[in-house]
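pipeline/complex-builder :: batch 7 item 3
reading input block
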Amino acid sequence: MEPHIILTFLILGLPLLGFVTIGLCGKIAKKWAQYVGTATIGVSLILSFILLFMVISRNAAYPVTSFTWFETGKYVLNFGFQIDSLAVIMLVVVSTVSFLVHLFSMDYMKGDPGIARFYAELQLFTVAMLGVVTASNLLQMFAFWELVGLCSYLLIGFWFHKRSVFQAAKKAFFVTKVGDVFLFLGIFAIFYFSGTLDFGSLTSGFKALSETILIVIPLCIFMGAVGKSAQFPLHVWLPNAMEGPTPVSALIHAATMVAAGIYLVARTIPVFIADTTGIALTVVMMVGAVTAFMGATIATVQDDIKKVLAYSTISQLGYMVMGLGAVYAIGGNHPSYAMFGFVAALFHLMTHAFFKGLLFLGSGSVIHATHTQNMHEMGGLIKKMPITGWTFVIGSLALAGFPLFAGFWSKDAIIGAVWSNFAHGHNTWALVAVVLALLGAFLTPYYMTRCVWLTFFGKPRKENHAHEGSWKTTLPLVWLAVLAAGVGFVGIPFWGGDGLIPNFFQSFLGNAYFKATHFISGNATLNIGTTLTDPSHGYETWSQTNPTLFFGAIIIVFAGILTGLIVYVWRPKLKVRLINGLRPIYIFLKNKWYIDEAWTFVAVKPFLWVAEFSSKFDAKVIDGAVNGVSWLTVKFAGVVHWFDSHIVDGAVNGVGWLGVKLSTITKWFDENVVDGLVNGTATVFGETGKQTRKIQTGYLPNYAAVMFASVVVILLIVAIFAL
Amino acid sequence: MINSMWLTLVTFLPLAGSLIILLFPKDNHKLIRGIATGFTLAVLGIAIYIWVLYSKDPTIVSATNPGMFKLVDKFVWVKLGENPLIHYHLGIDGMSMLMLFLTSLLSVTACLASFTIKERVKEYFSLFLLLETGLIGVFLSLDLVLFYVFWEVVLVPMYFLIGIWGGERRQYASIKFFIYTLVASLVMLVGILAIYFKTDTFSIAQLAKDGNVVASLGYLAIPVFLAMLFGFAVKVPSFPFHTWLPDAHVEAPAPISIMLAGVLLKMGGYGMIRMSLAFFRDGDPATFIKPMGTLIAILGVVGVVYGALCALVQKDLKKLVAYTSVNHMGFVLIAIAAFMLAPTPDTKQIALQGAIIVMFNHGTTTGLLFLLVGYIYERTHTRQIDELPGMGSKIPVIAIMLIIASFASIGLPALSGFVGEFLSLQAGFVARNWIAWVSIIGLVVNAGVMLWMMQRTMFGKLKEKFIDIKDASFREIIAAVPLFGFVFFIGLYPMPILSMISNSVVGLL
């Protein structure tokens, strides 16, 4: 086996081993669970980095290695690993955040009676997530994808004694399942048309398909991402998922699992590009844009620190989806611009994983110290918890898109890609998306300023004994803060001719993109592979083509921060006036755009009603029909009985009377006609006797069969009458 | 061909056990349980050995050589004049091998679960073993009359097992079960007789091999097909003939529910594949196959959605699981319809593999669910979902088992349900894509059913009165473990089972 396959096996296998070990022995050796868990994922992290450097030095993807999972007819479904730049980037991101969360949880979950279960589930989650990003075909990915959902369910419901907790867990699994069944349909369609689910040849059978089908298939796939990545309108589960332990929120509901939807779309991008009308990708872009804007608006009015971060996550995922949506529409003419969207989305996925992971862990540190999640009960914590406080500030700056921090570069790249989609791809919808994205870009620094100020600055509004945790808490925070501040530099845009710093991320990931799109290069309009080598198109961003907008974005960020400071720090009275002045909007936002209510109204209620109706229908109508038939049978039997005793018997008596009357006539008949017949009948009986003798073979089973047959015939007659 | 006695042995061994039990004193419960368990284990052992023999048998089954059956045991039973009329004819192919194994496996589970039966123990186990003989006989018979005899043999012990050891409304449920299925099987018998009169044979093997019943029946083809279908559909049970099922399940003691859902329902699906599909496969595509296939597809799709919807609002745990059976067996119908409607042999193969593996998976998963519901009932004496919150913290082992079984029922990958769901819906999608589009509603609702059920039973605050209940005993865990083994095994590596099924499928393509 090649080294990269062995490494992949180890990267997935170690946490799996950890899961099994903790699962089996967790009860006995409770306090070892956390060390085993952290150690396995620590090694996986190191191995992921080794694999990353192997792919970098190789400068190309490894060929897919796969084993037969199962066969059906002529079709083979594989189990294999696809190790390319996209996969290794995801591996590193997932294992980094997972390792830090494992470390962080040692303190956070200390003394919890279920700590072994917690670590076992974290391990299983990590295996599943690493499985999603290394899978070589869609069904295998889907399998891990569902397992990730299961772990999310289990971990949200970790403290299952509380009512709201298990409701949140159920909601999360159920809502994502709604998206997943569409993904399932998409898988059926691809498998049907292409005869395979290997990522390398997803679109191999797409040439003959109609335009409509080519639009529907990617949209089905995208529905999976809408559920998992909490896009409008299926985002409703994510805020509730915050009921889970905060490290879980950091790992699953901010950094990794929710990003799986982005990864799904990225991995299956050829399916999206195969839609030459660009409608599917435009839908993707608009869903992302609406989500980005909606999430940001709702985040501005949340009081729970985790809810602010949750809506912020929804919003940021919207940006990523928007970036992916910018991939086509223009791709036919300007493939390099098409690439920006793809690279930008993945770039933002990576930076977001780090800074949002940091923010969630920071909030966890605060919650652990203050025992509240309400920001209005915090304040002034920066003095008591300086490391948490300042790393949180760094994370917020990265999220807000403050210049030079990680989020600045990645969000810039996304808005740029969408702008290119409008400017070069002449997609009018992209302009709407850019406007929404810029509005979101204003709101993000605003709500983060609010969040940071309420939590860490000002006067403490409630008595607490907050203090910094041990190194297990602070090390992950510092580690992630370094990444949040610095990781953006791997992907900053070129300036001028040859550029100041090489855009490593783009050239590295571009490989995966072009390899993916290359598979449909048979289609003339999608012939992207040729322009790959043309650097004049390869490295350009909107920042270069439109510096006004670039600097405009920086101004927008500062404006957002400034507004936040004015409203919450310098002119607190303004806040009250704003709320009163904009009361309808405020209420609309407080109620989260009424989307939960809308779902209840259009889906939950009707479905429950239909279910109730079906159940009643089943008992009353269908079962009623069955019972009715039996009732009728009984009644009919009564009628038959009456008929028997009155009519039939009466008839018999009547016949008797008639018989006597007729006897005189018959006498004559008898003597003259019947005698002749009798002689004939004798002959008939003789023949019958001959035939019957054949059945009386003396062969014993024959008698049994005849007896059986008689019973059956009697039963048949009974049944016919009973019916 | 040399007759192999193994199939006869495995069929009648439980019957022997049933008679032997009658010889023992009725008060010695331990002994009787021991004998019954011994016999079910012996049957399982022989079934496994038959599996080995089956895999070793070098007979190659292919589309050109559909002599599908191995380990055949055949002699003349009834002669008409000098001509053999009815045969005692047993044999297995991949499908019946799986069903034989499922029956013997679930019998062991159900037998272990029956240890809590306290009344009339002797009669109970005697009838239980008689039931096993009937079930195995159905799956192994290759003669229509023999098949029918075993088919009816199943009814009798089942009637008594529900009627005597059942819950409050046991009489209503057992009589309903008996009459409903009897009527259905009589209708089926009419079909069988019609086939005999037109083809002059009762041999399932022959009819399946020729597959030209439609041509022989002429204008009777559709009525006879529908008669057979009705007989099977009631057993499946398919919408709208399913209403005996919730009643029977609610009233039946837990181990009998396991047999009922786990094995008895498979008789319907088995019959459809063995007869409806095989015998009638020469039907005209436009005037026979298409309308019949569409009919079955509609029954299946409605069952999937309707079963899940009904399950959603049930308050009784057993009724809920019973309705999910309607949902799951709907996938079998979908796959069977997909087989009929599919354009290519490749899809047909996916469809049948899907149908059979769904049947097997439903046997293990639903068997587990009923087993666990039974465990809970024995502890709490209630099946009302509202009464049972917080079980998770009190009986964690049972809770974990119930959660795994529920997720297997939802179709979580890595658990067995997923493979069957994927294959049957994939085939359904290819055959007619509306089948898959509508069925996904059932998938979602079924997920909701199980999630909501878990939420209301496992999580939350325990009721005061259940503070003393104890977690699963060793016997109870042992009863469940083999089923979980299959849930995981098929989920992770379905290949061995799928290739065995394809043996019996290839001949029908």
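note: The mean pLDDT of chain B is 88.
queue -> next item
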